[in-house]
Amino acid sequence: MAEYREVRIPTILRVMPLEGYRLRLELGSGSILELDMAGRLGTIRFCPLAEPEVFRSVTTDGQKLRFGKALEITASEVMDLAMIPPPRYTGGSEADG
Fold it and tell me: What pTM, to 2 d.p., does this model score?
């Protein structure tokens, strides 16, 4: 029987904001992750990032992304965001036409 092992989230070595509300993360595993946040800006959780100066303020301590005092995203949440598609909003009901 296979043994369950806890998944280790790699350290975030560097983060750089890119055009189009994307983030480029260099990970301790040697991988590069480009995370598109544009589709999440309409959510309550990530709406502070819609302000360009907040988005560009991103830094990391290796375990979290920090956007000034506006928002923190854990490395684990970053991995979830990379794997799970953003919500789709239609802007109203289908009856609105």
Answer: 0.82
